[in-house]
Amino acid sequence: MSSSQGPTSKIIADLRRHGLTVSTAESCTGGLIGKMLTDPPGSSCCYLGGIVAYSDTVKINLLQVDPQVIADHGAVSAQVALQMADGVRRSTGSDIGISCTGIAGPGGGTESKPVGLVCMALSANDDRAVQMLLFKGGRDEVRQSSAIKLLSMLDEYLEKKG
Predict the structure, then answer these.
(1) What domains appear along the chain, each with residue ranges and CATH number?
(2) Collapsing DSSP states into helix, strand and coil, what is residue 56?
(3) Quick one: 155 exposed, middle or buried, by C-beta within 10 A (0-12, 13-18, 19+)?
(4) What is the pLDDT of residues 61-72, one digit of tens each?
């Protein structure tokens, strides 16, 4: 999937066809996923909004991520990604919440959580999914790859719905 309008337009068309809405909670991508979802004209019927939760404080206060989960697992973890997706879905009233949190670099990585590690999640009434991936490249490449993969997760979810 690319950031061109084609694949994103398909996601918007599928959301519309199923009568579903989506919202985003982004950390390492800084709003890129929301931008990509709003590129196609008419996306306002299905995209309710997003929260760029770069700091732990915003994750806790706006997305209701449990501070103990951040303390136990770190902000870049499957557990936090799932809570971010659940939280944005709750706070916006959307049918689907998608989220990502990661280390885009060039700094901030550790041996156990290297630069390029991204956790992404999807939360819906009938499904929850999370993936942890390690992307190669510089900051822009990690962010772009993360956005594309998360939109691919959303596309796959919608494909399963028929």
Answers:
(1) 5-160 (3.90.950.20)
(2) helix
(3) middle
(4) 999 999 999 999
